[in-house]
Amino acid sequence: LQYNTNHLEALNNLGVLELKQSKKKIGLSNFEAACSLTDFTFEPYYNFAVTNYKCGNYEKALEFINKSLEIFPDHFDSQELRLTILKKLTS
Description:
By secondary structure, this protein is an all-alpha fold. It has 5 helices and no strands. Helix 3 (43-54) runs antiparallel to helix 4 (58-71) and helix 4 packs antiparallel against helix 5 (76-90).
């Protein structure tokens, strides 16, 4: 990021590292920044959705898991998370 602040893979990976250090807000911020830079890579959308789901932000998680599935419809983990979120929202 020091050389290219718009490097979406670096932002996504940094988000994962921040979460491992229990820095959810910073991790979410990095995933959101990565999402704003792509419409062809599903990973930032998936990671952003998972993190929002774990934080209890189900509507936002659903929004971003749907974007993940638009890019990669066959991603099994995204499909499963979508079903889980929908169950939470309808219960």
